[in-house]
Design brief:
Layout (H helix, E strand, L loop, with lengths): L2 H19 L6 E5 L2 E4 H17 L4 E4 L3 E3 L5 E9 L1 H5 L6 E8 L2 E9 L4 E6 L4 E3 L2 E2 L12 E5 L5 H17 L2 E4 L3 H9 L5 E5 L3 H13 L3 E3 L12 E5 L4 H9 L3
Parallel strand pairs: 3-5, 11-12, 11-13
Antiparallel strand pairs: 1-2, 3-4, 5-6, 6-7, 7-8, 8-9, 9-10, 13-15, 14-15
Helix pairs in contact: 1-2, 5-6
Bound molecules: adenosine-2'-monophosphate and calcium ion (CA).
Amino acid sequence: MNYLEVAEKTAREAGVVLLENLGKVKKIEFKAKNSLVTEVDKLSEEIIINNIKKSFPSHDIFAEESGRHSENSDYLWLIDPIDGTTNYAHAYPFFSISIALEVKGEVEIGLVYDPVKDEMFTAEAGKGAYLNGELIKVSKSDSIEHSHVCTGFMHEIEWMVEANIKHFGNFIRRARAVRRDGSAALDVCYVACGRFDGFWELGLNPWDTAAAVLILKEAGGQVTTFSGDEYSIYIKEILASNSIIHGQMMEILALEG
Ligand code: 2AM
Ligand code: CA
């Protein structure tokens, strides 16, 4: 099996476990005040890591719950066993599994799987983006007034709370509608397939965005910082769009309250 096939197989296996345990979470731990982790995050991560290690024992792994497993390889798997853990813990059916493969610092493979809808978003660098095997493209929306946009926010860091409230206010005054769905990986894939026209968030981690950003770029989207600088999954600021409304979103993010 190739890299993407291994990632797909293990995502489906972990997805079954997520569905089996949905609504039955017994124990929630806290990494920080609003940063939850359930026993299902750990179980899902174990399944994914075991599968990847079995197929590619010499590769490095960087996973949300267990951190870095280093073999000094050029190949690094970035894993989020549940993106949208707060939704999951409350049995709110919007969460995903995100798996990406970075080769010498470039993301080459990306997969985001929503087990609830059985939707598998995939991309390989240079080969387009797919939803359940069908080619996807970003929307053609050319004005923020006609756009359906999404964001996400965490609550621990006070300056981010202030910034999030400001941005949210500025977007609801301009956009057709603003959503706050709670799984950044899936939110960015929704931009990739045209369900959203844009997305922005502060404070995300590499495992949240690595796969989805490749999927979005392969679907014709654009990803930068809020001010239009080059994006990296190691930067904590993401603006993702269909590319046409990117400048309009940058203007709104630059407005004062
Ligand atoms: P997670 O469920 O894997 O933690 C929601 O706005 C997005 O932010 C989700 O992708 C979520 O990923 C992430 N997120 C939520 N709380 C977070 C926190 N405390 N630190 C970092 N990322 C967080
Ligand atoms: Ca997670």
